[in-house]
Specification:
By secondary structure, the chain is α/β, with parallel strands linked by helices. The protein has a domain at 64-207: Rossmann fold, CATH 3.40.50. The protein is built from five helices and five strands. It has a five-stranded mixed sheet with strand order 2-3-1-4-5. A hairpin with an 8-residue loop joins strand 4 and strand 5.
Length: 216
């Protein structure tokens, strides 16, 4: 019967010292392991996976844009009426430092020197003052390219609040890349449009819910 190569040597086999026998056992086990490795087929390479996309790229995340209409207006003249002024005050709380919107930049359409087109600025100026921000009014009401350039070029902290005439909000959303954007109702002043970064869609429309102004 052949000897068990892994068993300890018998006392009668004096030609094997304990040290030599342990060396032989170790060599024999290593030979078995390497043989198994050589017989195992190589795994196919994984394709179509970019490790760089396995987790979100912080550098690729940009600001959310919140688009709102200016506050209520009088039947005649420029500026805001009493309700519009109340809405401007409400926005100080809604979009302020204690709110959830994390506003870091405020935009409003450029007013005319004669006072026309000033309502968006009047609506957000008190909020901007609270936040220590200056309202960017560098873009004309109808200059969509200017608006897109500022929004896509913004690298600062926080999100962007944009206040404009309601008829142009759809145009701005389209210029940013939104397909089939909504239309802002002519008889509403309280809606917030949410455009997450990449600006492919208006993902949410909700009321500002200003006390004694909005019943939604």
């Amino acid at each position: 019967m052949p000897p068990n190569l892994l068993s300890s040597p018998s006392s009668g086999r004096s030609k094997w010292s304990n040290t030599a026998w342990r060396f032989f056992q170790a060599f024999f086990l290593l030979a078995i392991v390497f043989s198994c490795i050589r017989l195992t087929p190589a795994l196919p390479a994984i394709t179509g996976f970019d490790a760089s996309n396995d987790s979100p790229d912080i550098a690729s995340v940009g600001p959310t844009v919140y688009m709102i209409r200016h506050g209520e207006k009088p039947d005649e003249g420029n500026g805001l009426d009493t309700e519009g002024l109340k809405r401007a005050k409400c926005l100080r709380t809604l979009f302020g430092a204690s709110g959830k919107y994390n506003i870091g930049y405020v935009m409003a359409q450029q007013p005319k020197s004669n006072g026309k087109r000033r309502r968006p600025l009047d609506t957000v100026k008190p909020l901007a003052r609270d936040l220590g921000l200056k309202v960017d009014t560098s873009c004309d009401r109808d200059d969509m390219d200017c608006v897109v350039k500022i929004i896509t070029g913004y690298k600062g902290p926080g999100n962007i609040l944009l206040c404009w005439e309601h008829e142009r909000l759809t145009d701005i959303a389209t210029a940013l890349g939104v397909k089939n954007p909504p239309t802002y109702p002519w008889d509403s002043f309280d809606l917030i449009w949410t455009l997450p970064y990449r600006y492919k869609a208006v993902t949410r429309i909700k009321s500002e819910k200003c006390p004694k102004l909005d019943k939604r």
